[in-house]
Amino acid sequence: MLVFYPRFIRTFDDLPGYVSLLIHCWSGCNMRCFGCHNASELIDAKPDGRHLTAAQVLERLREGHQLFDALLLSGGEFLMNDMTEIRSFLKRVKALFAGPIIVYTNGTFPRKMQCLLDEGLIDGVHLDMKLPYHCLDPVEDAEVYRAIIGIAPSRKYRQAMLESVEAVIRHDSKVSQIRTVRYPLLSEEYFEHIRLYVNELNIRHGSTVPYYLNPYYPPQPANA
Ligand code: SF4
User: What residue stretches are annotated with the Radical SAM core domain (predicted)?
Assistant: First the structure.
């Protein structure tokens, strides 16, 4: 069952030119990234009765949809959820909200992501390319992977993340982004490799998906 965190966030920065509503699905994550802001509330903590169901989220959207003009669906990892439930939810969102719907993902579910784009159930993707996966071997560079994404991926897993990056660029939505957090553990060279990779894919597909290198903000303690 789709379960959501009850706090919705209005944001002016995540999608330039739009007032966006950011909603977090409370479904956990298959990574454990350095400095993840959602770790304690959405990954370690399981839904505890404060959560909202899909029907409750739809009700809130129905009441307040004039207060934002884009909808951002995050997690944890939103695409870990069951596709039938994701589809059903997005169809109902589309029926009441005409603005762009964007999914945030770490790129590990390329097929689900592609299906949602092909079916027009989402308008774009903000994909976190956290490392230059194309340059880092899952075995030889396992330590780097563990330090940043908290796991050492298999080759198949790494391939999935690269497939997702290419799929987002090939789709070429004006509301999609590839982005990286400027993790303090990494030297500038890592970010430059990602930037060049995104640039090359944009050239290959005749696309213009922007790349953002975002500042790192350490998570604040819960009582700060
Ligand atoms: S992919 Fe996102 S939600 Fe998951 S651990 Fe990494 S930063 Fe946190």
Answer: 13-224
